[in-house]
Write a structure and sequence with these properties.
ABC transporter transmembrane region fold, Rossmann fold, 23 helices, six-stranded mixed sheet, 2 domains, transmembrane helix, membrane, four-stranded antiparallel sheet, ABC-type transporter activity, nucleotide-binding, alpha/beta, AAA+_ATPase, 9% strand
């Protein structure tokens, strides 16, 4: 069966196979010094010293060592070349894929998962392709060739060289018995430990406020104790087996067995002292070879899992792009009979019809899960509709080239995302050619200029190094970035939901500057902040219940009036957005 690893390696298999061939030649040549040392010993013990023969064998040993070194060097060069080409092609393919997947894919996929694929998994493939193919070949060819040589000298020598291997094989088989099931059990236990840690850290403020530190700590302690007991219960019985298998492969034990049993064979006259010397040279190579083989098998398992994840990323469905993009004529937004669901069996939006005139502000309100965020994110094509269409400027968003669409539609979401780089680079993401004066003007409008000026290097401060921003500050940077991009259509998804009161006031001022003259679709969680907008749309279970201005909806005494009265029963400080 063809695996994902086989598929990914296919373009560079010829280089890998050539490298393996050179590694095999190097491993065979490395056997020549063993033969040479044995022959040198034979000549020296023969009595009359043949000087020319001694020099020939000595020269042959030196030449063989040199050729073996060159062959192994060429093998590693070829496999590293294969790895370089594979890494370059995979990185290009992944970057291209990440640039074409729907934005909604990033919402569903954590940054840690993406990082693991594009960084850690590629590193796992590097070790397998660049190193283990060569090392595994040498680890197999050298001892096998050595055993074949011993058989040609005396078949008893080959048996003597592997005399301790059955002990290791039996111990290893016992250690690996039920390995998969036990690892799954330990993974579940470790997941519980991780969950307990996250729960404890995230909830520490509440826990301390209510005096439940001891109880929260007990949850963590119980998870740790359970993992410790399961791990110790599995590992302790294996320690004796591990010690036994390690002893069976240790050089002193191998020498003891070889010389001890070999002396009995010598006494019987079945072998000669030089043959025993040859057997010892081969026998001490076997443990290191087995260690490399074991490491290679582990690397192969790791690489198989990494290749599956890489292939999974490369198979993510891309956002369809039109062959010839259409140009929006205006900045109005229209939803026509929109149906959408992440799972076809459970639709979230069902027949939504809505028009947002150019230059107007439309607020989406409703209970949690009503479909507000989902509807808004269809405009910048985080996902595509399952039925119906979404139009911007009279053109179906699916018929607009994605680059043109993002010059037309900007968005500020709940969780502001900043990239590693300078503050100025972050602000220029949507408009790289913007001047310093334009960057500063956008920052001033977003109420973040003074904070940037206070940084060690101002706008040239690197985020994550000498520029650390709070959630509210990061949100204002995101707003400044959107202001600088100057898109005629704007999506605001509860941009102040995680801000503290002081930051929220500044964000509201920044949003007011951002919204002027644009077509705005805003998702509101505080009704008082959107009471002055042009249109309020109430969603419930993926349908539009009613729409209109604040006063007319209150007079209709429908769903919006109920939401308004419910909010009035639990008043909170409101910061009205002057849109």
């Amino acid at each position: 069966m063809t695996t994902a690893l086989d598929t990914l390696k296919r373009p560079v298999n010829r280089l890998i196979h050539l490298g393996v061939a050179f590694a095999a030649v190097g491993a065979l040549v490395n056997l020549v010094p063993f033969i040479g040392l044995t022959e040198l010993g034979r000549l020296l013990l023969a009595g009359g010293v043949d000087t020319q023969a001694l020099w020939r064998w000595a020269a042959l040993v030196v030449i063989a060592l040199s050729l073996g070194w060159v062959a192994n060097g060429v093998a590693l060069w070829l496999t590293h070349l294969a790895d370089h080409r594979l890494q370059a092609s995979l990185r290009e393919a992944m970057v291209r894929k990440l640039g074409h997947v729907p934005l909604g894919w990033y919402t569903d996929t954590t940054s840690g998962a993406v990082r693991k694929v594009v960084q850690d998994d590629l590193e796992d493939l590097h070790h397998l392709v660049a190193h283990h193919a060569v090392e595994l070949t040498a680890a197999i060819v050298t001892p096998v060739a050595g055993l074949v040589w011993l058989v040609t000298l005396n078949w008893r020598l080959a048996l003597l060289a592997v005399l301790t291997l059955p002990v290791y094989a039996l111990a290893y088989a016992l250690m690996m018995r039920g390995f998969g099931a036990k690892m799954q059990l330990l993974d579940k236990s470790m997941s519980r430990v991780s969950a307990a840690i996250v729960e404890f850290v995230h909830g520490i403020a509440v826990v301390k406020a209510f005096g439940q530190v001891g109880q929260a700590h007990r949850s963590y302690q119980q998870a740790v104790n359970q993992f410790s007991e399961q791990y110790a219960g599995w590992v302790k019985p294996l320690l004796r087996l591990e010690a036994l298998s390690s002893m069976a492969l240790s050089v002193p034990v191998i020498l003891l067995v070889s010389l001890g049993v070999g002396s009995l064979l010598l006494a019987k006259g079945w072998i000669t002292p030089l043959q025993l010397f040859a057997e010892t040279l081969v026998a001490v190579v076997i443990p290191q070879s087995l260690l490399v083989i074991n490491q290679s098998l582990t690397a192969q398992r790791t690489a198989l899992a990494a290749a599956d994840r890489i292939e999974g990323l490369l198979k993510v469905e891309e956002l369809p792009a039109p062959k010839v993009g259409k140009q929006p004529q205006g900045s109005d937004i229209t939803f026509e009979h929109v149906q959408f669901g992440y799972d076809p069996e459970h639709p979230i939006l069902n027949g939504v019809d809505l028009h947002c005139p150019a230059g107007s502000v439309t607020a989406l309100v409703g209970a949690s899960g009503a479909g507000k965020s989902t509807l808004a994110k269809l405009v910048p094509r985080f996902h595509d509709v399952k039925a119906g269409c979404v139009r911007v400027g009279g053109v179906d968003v699916r018929d607009i080239d994605p680059r043109q669409l993002y010059r037309q539609v900007g968005f500020v979401l709940q969780d502001a995302q900043l990239v590693h780089g300078t503050v100025a680079d972050n602000l220029r993401l949507g408009r790289p050619e913007a001047s310093d004066a334009e960057v500063e003007m956008a920052a001033r409008s977003a109420q973040i200029h003074l904070r940037i000026e206070a940084l060690p290097r101002g706008y040239q401060s690197v985020i994550g190094e000498d520029a650390i921003f709070s959630g509210g500050e990061a949100q204002r940077l995101s707003i400044a970035r959107t202001l600088l991009a100057d898109t005629p259509v704007l999506i605001l998804d509860e941009a102040t939901s995680h801000a503290d009161p002081e930051s929220e006031a500044l964000i509201q001022d920044a949003l007011s500057a951002l919204a002027r003259g644009r077509t705005v679709l805003v998702i509101a969680h505080r009704l008082a902040s959107i009471s002055g907008v042009d249109q309020i749309v109430v969603l419930d279970q993926g349908r539009v219940l009613e729409s209109g201005r604040h006063e007319s909806l209150l007079q209709a005494n429908g769903a919006y009036a109920q939401l308004w009265r419910a909010g009035a029963k639990h008043p909170v400080p409101e910061l009205e957005m002057s849109l």
